[in-house]
Design goal:
Elements (H helix, E strand, L loop, with lengths): L1 H4 L7 H26 L8 H8 L6 H9 L11 E3 L2 E3 L1 E7 L4 H12 L6 E6 L4 H10 L2 E3 L7 H12 L4 E4 L5 E2 L3 H5 L8 E5 L3 E2 L5 H21 L12 E4 H6 L10 H11 L3 E4 L5 E3 L5 H21 L10 H12 L3 H18 L10 H23 L4 H9 L1 H13 L22 H24 L4 H42 L1
Helix pairs in contact: 2-9, 2-13, 2-14, 5-6, 9-16, 12-13, 12-17, 14-17, 14-18, 14-19, 18-19
């Protein structure tokens, strides 16, 4: 940044301003990210937690734990649990909306098998008689609503009005919980101000470009960023794999219903009320990350829209109900998706140079000097990522770059108050081309490809090399690779859909 701000290195006003704004945004975001990550070297478990855990089954704790370790599960599923020597009740909610019955059944069986006395309920917003029959067959509760208002948040609030557990767990339909889930999370509630305990989202289906890139992207958030938020009492709910204190949620009128991102909204309001939260970096449930471009696009659009809603409607920086640390942490989380605008600005720079001869940096600066100075910021980020995570996931880097149109669309959705429909991860109703959800990326690929070719022709004609050609060619490759991934996905989906129709036709015959 010092290099960019020196008057002698400035180029033309428009691209120079675009570079300053974009790079400044990334530096601020990167600094806040590293600050949060470096704050995560503390253990959220303290004496009160361990004491509560050692007495979670009262006088029978040692016997019950011994039975668990001996796999005598039938003697532990109905054991009364205690917090601060008082018996407590726990409800486990599984909100569903059209997921495969086999998937819901697996989640329900795991939830029913959690150690400690609890009640399990399937909250069916899909009004499926097949799901209802399955719930009865596995021995768990079943609820459905007459009116399906406010999506998942409304579904949970309806369940809260029909149950009375002092604590409740939320598990999405595709997250299979570890048997120790309640035992690991409940002891934190020995603190009467503890409102929620969040555990990671971990994925077992990283099988292709989309699922690998999206899974690793979330792994960074859960293994580094959320951990650091504990120091500032700013860890927030991510919608699943979480336990809440009912009285805290009901004190604020229930789960926040005015957004599809009810998780972060509910967390922030709980913090405004003075409650505490904690994140434990131990995998307690395994789910599925998006495997298709459609699923990934819808998920990112929903998450980004929710973040922008908070930024625009209740900006954390000016939220007097939060502490200074919490304001900074929520601001960091809600401003993350503005990187879509920053990436879009940087992608336009080569075109401005190639078509209009507008450069952000003075042409007198040698390419080697420019590359050396920029490596101080970008190369060290890559090295740090490899050091911290053990590897460099190129799928994640590429997926982050091509996602900018999703984030820009989300901003304008939030600005207009346009709601984004919710859909289960990887839900498949019929063939739906991935290109229906990535038209902007295709247009960007074509634009960058044409710009690169014109840049090469211009360089040959003028005999002047420009670093813009390399930048444009690199981004052409990234977006071209994404288009190729989409074409391969579309081919696979067409084949699967054809086989499905042939199978149905054969059955009818």
């Amino acid at each position: 940044m010092v290099f960019l701000l020196q008057p002698g290195y400035r180029g033309d006003a428009l691209p120079y301003a675009m570079v300053i704004v974009s790079e400044l945004f990334f530096i601020i975001l990167g600094s806040m990210s590293f600050w949060t990550i470096l704050s995560g070297r503390i253990n959220p478990r303290h004496f009160g937690y361990y004491n509560a855990k050692n007495n979670i089954f009262g006088d029978f704790t040692k016997t019950v734990i011994k039975d668990i370790k001996s796999y005598k599960t039938m003697t532990t599923l109905d054991k009364q649990m205690y917090i601060n020597s008082k018996p407590v009740s726990v409800d486990v909610f599984i909100p569903v909306y059209g997921e495969p019955v086999s998937e819901i059944r697996q989640t329900a069986l795991a939830a029913k098998g959690l150690y400690g006395k609890h009640a399990t309920y399937i909250l069916d917003d899909g009004n499926s008689d097949e799901v209802k029959a399955m719930a009865a067959s596995v021995g768990v509760g079943y609820m459905r609503r007459a009116e399906h208002k406010h999506a998942k948040a409304g579904n949970i609030n309806h369940a809260l009005s029909k149950t009375n557990g002092e604590f409740f767990v939320i598990l999405d339909a595709d997250f299979v919980a570890n048997s120790y889930f309640i035992i690991e999370t409940l002891p934190f509630f020995e603190d009467v101000r503890m409102a929620l305990v969040q555990t990671p989202q971990f994925y077992s289906n990283q099988v292709n470009f989309i699922s690998s890139g999206a899974g690793f992207m979330q792994h960074i958030f859960y293994s580094l960023v959320q951990v650091g938020k504990n120091k500032f009492n700013a860890a927030f709910c991510v919608g699943t794999n979480v336990m809440f204190r009912r009285s805290a949620v009901m004190a604020m009128g229930g789960v926040y219903q005015q957004s599809k991102s009810e998780d972060i909204w509910t967390s922030m309001i709980l913090h405004e009320h003075g409650y505490r939260s904690v994140y434990i970096n131990r995998v307690m449930a395994i789910g599925k990350t998006p495997e298709t471009i459609k699923a990934y696009s819808k998920q990112q659009l929903r998450w980004a829209t929710g973040s922008f809603e908070i930024f625009l409607k209740r900006n954390p920086l000016f939220n007097r109900g939060l502490t200074v640390d919490q304001r900074i942490q929520y601001l960091y989380s809600t401003m993350f998706y503005f990187n879509g605008f920053a990436i879009a600005g940087l992608l336009l720079l080569p075109a401005l140079q190639i078509y209009l001869n507008l450069t952000p940096i003075a042409l007198s600066i040698p390419v080697w000097q420019w590359a050396l100075l920029y490596s101080g910021f970008y190369l060290t980020q890559l090295v740090l990522s490899v050091y911290v995570m053990g590897k460099l996931q190129f799928e994640t880097l590429m997926l982050s770059a091509v996602s900018f149109p999703i984030y820009i669309k989300a901003f304008f959705n939030a600005l207009r108050g346009q709601d984004e429909s919710w859909q289960a991860t990887n839900r498949v109703d019929s063939y739906d081309s991935p290109f229906n959800y990535m038209r902007a990326q295709v247009y960007v690929f074509l634009f960058l490809g044409i710009t690169t070719l014109i840049g090469i022709w211009k360089s040959a004609y003028t005999r002047e090399f420009s670093v813009s050609i390399i930048w444009s060619a690199l981004n052409t490759f990234i977006f071209g690779y994404f288009v190729w991934v989409a074409a391969r996905e579309a081919k696979s989906m067409r084949r699967a859909n054809h086989n499905k129709l042939a199978h149905i036709k054969g059955d009818n015959i």
